[in-house]
Design goal:
This protein is mostly helical. The protein is built from 15 helices and 18 strands. The strands form 7 sheets. A 3-stranded antiparallel beta sheet has the order 14-1-18, with helices on one face. A 3-stranded antiparallel beta sheet has the order 3-7-8. A 3-stranded mixed beta sheet has the order 5-4-6.
């Protein structure tokens, strides 16, 4: 097959244009590939290097997974990122496959040209000798010119043959490397998919495991932190000498946390109402102090029936006479107005709870303590004296919350569009909080108390709420861990709670070293109280320096980690060291 100079020139231009377009596309591909989140510095065309780096990430996270199953979620996220990267890389390789195919098509034409060039060069070398050229030339100048042209053509043929040979060789190398990359990519993709599948199963197992621990921890916190509703009438007086700040535990230094009030601190304080009544306030004064500027309707219908779970139905006034939420004896010691305020609150709460009698109400402290017999005495008198009195908000009975003791500060809450005030429950505001709170003057045993018994009376064998320095330091070290990495909370339960995966004191000390510990000595304690009734900051001077915690975090971890049933009932608390 013979090719003319014109055709050869045309095809050469066509091939060069295709090569230029190919290199432009290849550069764009390499630039995009380099933008992928590959950790190591791999050459843009070195797919094996990039795959190896992804493999390293997979292996590294496998090791992290085995060491710490709590990081499974983060590991799954990273595997997802790697899988996405592999998908992008696979797409880029697919594009490269198409480009290699196009190069093969283009080079097929060039191979034909190469064969033609080689045959033509061979023929010329055999049939065109310098002697023949000399004899056929008309002059020396023509001979020299023809000889130069033939040498130039031969050199150009050799150059083109050499370029085409190199292109063909590079193509074969690229094809070989590309096939290797495809195999490596497929193997790694399979491994990532397998690990992701395994990981999802592990996450499910781990979440199930920790959800069980979380449920147990929630129960523990409910027992120790005051997660219950109670009143004076249902629970015996809590004036335990061991719970007082002057108790001597027999060792020093000793640490205890005293709660101001318990539990929810919203609505009327029963002991506060008693103190206000003894100070001369009327039932209306008491109600407005705790519930704000609310309507006190005094002629509400008494023909409404209340359905009590387990006890049938009674009219609203009989229902209130059977509420055991405040001692009748208070009526004989200056607290009759408090009994009246309590009767109005109980009546309002029941009507709001049952939607004016259309629903039912429980007979326990979760609602209001009800017994199937009139309480009698001063309580009956107070109910009769306030017959038909109901707190109204938004045209409906207001849900009048109340509890034994709020600790000197009562939180606000809202119902039917009305919001109760947040107040320091003293005659002098915050200035009289610890000395002249109405609850304290009324003699509430819960105003300032350290708690170490469960509601059932159980104490895990402890006879007081005081901790040794070692026990208190253990709580502080748990706090340091929690503050530094809250995901470790599943390991920080009380050692008495019987919750699996709980760390020992030694392990807590070891882990606390990562977060500024471990603390071994506490030299002093200081609290900062907010203006709205809670402990804001706790400062501890320790052998590892000054430590600062929010009051919320301290209460949470103290109730979770402190031994036995020792706990904090209120967000307003005080830490004592002696």
């Amino acid at each position: 097959m013979l090719v003319t100079s014109l055709n050869l020139k045309f095809k050469r231009v066509k091939i060069n244009s295709a090569v230029k377009i190919f290199f432009i596309l290849l550069c764009a591909f390499y630039y995009a590939l380099c933008a992928l989140p590959i950790r190591a510095e791999c050459a843009a065309t070195d797919y094996d290097c990039q795959i190896r780096e992804l493999q390293k990430e997979v292996d590294a996270r496998t090791e992290a997974h085995e060491k710490n199953k709590l990081s499974l979620a983060a590991y799954e996220k990273e595997l997802s990122r790697i899988a996405n990267t592999l998908t992008l890389l696979a797409g880029k390789l697919k594009a490269t496959e198409k480009e290699i195919f196009q190069r093969e098509v283009d080079l097929a034409t060039q191979k034909e040209l190469l064969e033609v060039r080689i045959r033509d060069l061979y023929k010329k070398s055999r049939n065109s000798s310098p002697l023949f050229l000399l004899l056929s030339s008309r002059s020396a100048g023509e001979f020299t010119q023809q000889l130069g042209l033939r040498r130039a053509a031969a050199n150009e043929d050799l150059r083109i043959i050499n370029l085409l040979s190199k292109d063909i060789s590079r193509l074969e190398t690229d094809k070989t490397n590309f096939k290797k990359s495809q195999v490596s990519l497929a193997a790694l993709q399979k491994k990532v998919d397998s690990q992701a599948s395994f990981l999802r199963q592990e996450v499910q197992k781990t979440e199930s495991f920790f959800s069980q621990i979380a449920a147990k921890q929630k129960d523990l916190l409910a027992l120790k932190s005051g997660g219950f509703s109670t009143s004076v009438g249902d629970v015996p007086p809590a004036d335990d000498p061991a719970s007082r700040p002057d108790y001597n535990p027999g060792f020093s230094p000793a640490f205890a946390v005293f709660s101001f009030g318990a539990p929810h601190r919203k609505g009327m304080s029963q002991y506060g109402a008693y103190g206000r009544a003894k100070a001369g306030q009327s039932a209306e004064d008491i109600l407005r102090a705790y519930y704000g500027n609310i309507e006190i309707k005094k002629d509400y219908s008494t023909a409404i029936n209340i359905r009590v779970t387990g006890y049938g139905t009674v009219d609203i006034e009989t229902y209130v006479k059977r509420i055991y939420e405040m001692p009748s004896s208070w009526g004989d010691s200056g607290g009759f107005e408090a009994l009246k305020a309590q009767a109005v609150a109980a009546r309002s709460y029941a009507l709001a709870y049952t939607n004016n009698g259309s629903g039912s109400i429980c007979a326990t402290e979760s609602c209001q303590v009800y017994k199937p017999a009139n309480k009698g005495g001063k309580w009956d008198e107070a109910v009769n004296a306030t017959r038909g009195w109901v707190l109204i908000a938004g045209g409906k009975p207001f849900s009048a919350w109340y509890a034994s003791t709020a600790g000197g500060y009562t939180f606000s809450y809202s119902h039917n569009g009305h919001t109760t005030p947040g107040l320091w429950d003293t005659a002098k505001g915050r200035e009289g909080w610890t000395s002249e709170a109405y609850e304290k003057t009324a003699g509430s045993p819960w105003f300032y108390k350290a708690w170490y018994r469960l509601r059932s009376g159980g104490s895990y064998g402890r006879s007081h709420p005081w901790l040794t320095e070692t026990e208190f330091s253990d709580v502080v070290n748990a706090l340091l861990i929690y503050k530094g990495n809250s995901s470790e909370v599943s390991h920080l339960s009380s050692l008495d709670a019987g919750i699996s995966d709980t760390w020992s004191m030694a392990k807590v000390k070891e882990e606390a070293a990562r977060y500024g510990g471990p603390v071994g000595k506490i030299n002093s304690v200081e609290q900062v109280y907010s203006n709205d009734g809670y402990t804001k900051i706790v400062y501890l001077e320790t052998d590892k320096g000054r430590k600062e915690f929010s009051g919320e975090d301290f209460k949470y971890m103290y109730n979770l980690r402190a031994p036995g049933a020792i706990g904090i009932k209120s967000s307003l608390f005080d830490i004592r060291r002696k």
